[in-house]
Amino acid sequence: MLFTLMYWGGYDAWHFLKLISVTNVLLISNVMTVTMDDKRHILNDAGIAIDGQLIVAVESSEVLKQRFRQAEIMDGEGMVAIPGLIDTHAHADQSLLRGLGDKMHWMPFLDGVIEPYLAERDPADGVLANALSMMEMIRAGTTCFVSPNVDPRDDYGLLTDVVGQLGIRAVLGRFITPQDGSDNEYAARTAVAKAAAVMRQWHESQGGLVKMWFGLMVPRRPGDTYHPEFYKAVALEAANMQVGIVYHFCSEFEDSVYIQNKYGVSPAEWSRDNHALGSNVLLINGCWVTPTEIKILADTGSHVAHSPVANMKMATGVLPVPDVLAGGVNVSLGTDGALNNNTYDMFAEMKTACLLQNSVRRSASALSAEEALEMATIRGARAIGRDHELGSIEPGKLADIVLLDMKRPNTCPLHDVISNLVFATSSSNVHTVFIGGEKVLEAGCILGMDETVVLDQAQLRAERLRSDLGLSSAQTWPTS
């Protein structure tokens, strides 16, 4: 770059670029752009100028062609550009078990599938599952995801290498549990320091694509133990490292009732009293949250990741999204996982989020397409503390951009672009994906890894895993 980038907010701050000749700029031209900026501008026939990792200008194509005369031009005619989608709840290590968790509620799901899988799997299978999941995410326009319970036994070197090869952004919530025995300050800090040492080794690795968070274990059912000093130690270390905390919260009727019966307080009160709420905390699901708890979440600045498809599939409950948003809580979207969703498709998640709220509230406008798109982009960025650099297409932000081919039967005609994006678009429309200015998907093809090799390995290892775990598919129709 031939100049030092500065950002004061808004397009007007970038008028000085007209006077500067910049080389090595990529200009996406002639593209309808859904910016998701503060005013939610939608620009027809726009140009997006990318220099290195950053967006440096968003304006009329013709204006930018004059401004950046030496730029490489990518014609976006017929495309719609949106910010990269952010999946804030994605168990990326579960894709090898796709289809084996159907017809299960959460406790049989955990006890009969998840726990045996984690206990028996080879770390290489975890890496392979993550690679498969990340490929699916990129193909569906997801540029950043939060994996909330990354197993401490995983091979973090190989795992982060896969992140780097594919070029996707990953927030890895390293699952952390208290030490056995009595709860005291020394034991708690020792356990947390041990986990933090591992996290520091990989935090900001792969050119900053990898972020390490704490994936917190909290009591949810009988047999789970209570460790107040441990929760406090996690909160202190997260603040010290300036990273986030993520955990499942008030997800099912049973865990909500368990907290109330066991501790005499609501889940939000329990979390507040145990240092497990705050602006760096991402709560998963929250299906049974009450109005009083919504206020607690708002007062503490905590965020909620909504996963409507998995919640419906597992019959766990319904987050009252309109009420939570109206209460001042930031809500993002997540797919949960290939085992209980059974995809990582954020377009399906946006559509389902709207349909679920409209259905249960008997109102066709309970949750709008605009709100769903916000949850998948700028609100997702806010949930991971990165809305200053992700979640919208604006000068000064990282160039995480998805180009959608809208000249397809499922998205033609185009009357209302937001309606089409949420209710008609699918992963099949995703044409090209940029992450930090790097092209990771081109014309529907993954660039960072041999997709065929991964698919072949995944099928073989998945069949072996199913046999080793003694699992059978729920398929009941005869097959020959």
What's the overall geometry? globular
Oligomer: single chain
What is the CA-based Rg, rounded? Answer: 22 Å
Percent strand equals: 15-25%
Task: Fill in the keyword field for this structure.
globular; eight-stranded parallel β-sheet; 480 residues; 16 helices; 19 strands; 37% helix; disordered N terminus; nine-stranded mixed β-sheet; alpha/beta
Summary, kept brief:
The chain is α/β, with parallel strands linked by helices and 480 residues long. The chain has helices at 61-67, 106-120, 123-139, 156-166, 185-202, 228-241, 253-263, 267-273, 291-300, 308-313, 321-326, 346-361, 369-376, 378-383, 417-424, 451-469; strands at residues 25-34, 42-51, 54-60, 72-75, 79-83, 85-87, 90-91, 142-150, 169-176, 210-216, 245-249, 281-285, 303-306, 330-333, 336-337, 401-405, 430-435, 438-442, 445-446. Residues 1-22 have low confidence and may be disordered.
